[in-house]
Design brief:
There is one protein chain. Helix content is about 30%, strand content about 30%. With about 260 residues, it is an alpha+beta fold. The chain has a seven-stranded mixed β-sheet with strand order 1-2-3-7-6-5-4, with helices on both faces. A five-stranded antiparallel β-sheet has the order 11-10-9-8-12, with no helix packed on it. Strand 6 and strand 7 form a beta hairpin. Helix 4 packs antiparallel against helix 7 and helix 4 packs across helix 8. The longest helix is centred in the last third of the chain and has 20 residues. The protein is globular and about 55 Å long. The structure holds biotin.
């Protein structure tokens, strides 16, 4: 379907600032998952910067095989094909988090906190998340699909989600403009991907640390064989891995293995 008029207006106003990010926007009234559409398109040769958005998803997914609730009209469900140098690909999720926080701030005035590796938080609750899925990471440049879900309004969430989630509309106390949020998030994503691609890892990581400061220094756990180990998350390293303090010393853990307690 065509891009809705409000969103098309916001995208047109930000065309220069977005550059190739969103040079083509494919819009669905409903689809299984915008990540699936983006992965299919990327494998078929679609250019980096192509964006896929849906009003609702029937099979929205998050990390660890979780379902991403995608009720119509209540969220931003967007996936972007991104190309970056291989050496920085492990930092893409953190860079995308920075971009989403900056895009949300620019479009709504709301301050979002980041929780490693891929959560957007406000007021102690989750307001969005990022699911990065590889298309090709063994060649230059690496191609990745970045899927972003942001709760714009409270939806008909199941109780276990409602207990932990919030929405931009709830936090702002007024309606938010989906087109503006989308457009400003793409502007910020272009900026962060450009910075990362230029090899300026420290700018991205410093910004991430600032936005994540209130949600670091907390207890985490992970499995080691049959045992569950615990430690305190203290920082990230230059690859984006979590640095965890334990009685035996400092460990580097990746996103697949860590759970927040
Ligand atoms: C998470 O927090 O676990 C990540 C959630 C990512 C959800 C988005 S919504 C758009 C895109 N399509 C999907 O199926 N997932 C991502």
């Amino acid at each position: 379907m065509p891009v809705p008029a409000d969103e098309a207006g916001a995208l047109a106003r930000t065309a220069d600032a977005r550059g190739a990010m969103g040079h083509r926007v494919v819009w669905y009234a409903t689809t299984s998952s915008t990540n699936d559409r983006a992965l299919d398109a990327a494998h078929a040769g679609a250019a980096p910067g192509t964006v896929f958005v849906a009003d609702t998803q029937t099979g929205g997914r998050g990390r660890r095989g979780r379902t991403w609730q995608s009720p119509p009209g209540a969220g931003l469900y967007v996936s972007v094909i991104v190309a970056v140098p291989r050496e920085v690909v492990t930092l893409l999720t953190l860079a995308a988090g920075v971009a989403m926080a900056e895009g949300i701030q620019a479009s709504t005035g709301l301050a979002v906190q980041l929780k490693w590796p891929n959560d957007l938080w406000m007021d102690g609750r989750k307001v969005g998340g990022i699911l990065a899925e590889s298309v090709q990471v063994g060649v230059e440049p690496a191609i990745v699909v970045l899927g972003v879900g942001v709760n714009l309004a409270h939806g008909a969430w199941p109780p276990e989600v409602a207990a932990l989630a919030t929405s931009l509309q709830h936090e702002a106390g007024r309606a938010v403009d989906r087109g503006l949020v989308l457009a400003e998030c793409l502007v910020a994503l272009r900026r962060c991907v450009d910075v990362l691609s230029a090899g300026d890892v420290s700018t991205v990581l410093d910004r991430w640390r600032t936005l994540a400061a209130t949600l670091l220094r907390r207890a985490v756990e992970w499995d080691e064989g049959a045992a569950v180990r615990t430690g305190t998350a203290v920082d990230v390293d230059d690859t984006g891995a979590l640095l965890v303090e334990t009685p035996e010393g400092r460990l580097c853990l990746n996103a697949g293995e860590v759970r927040w307690r």
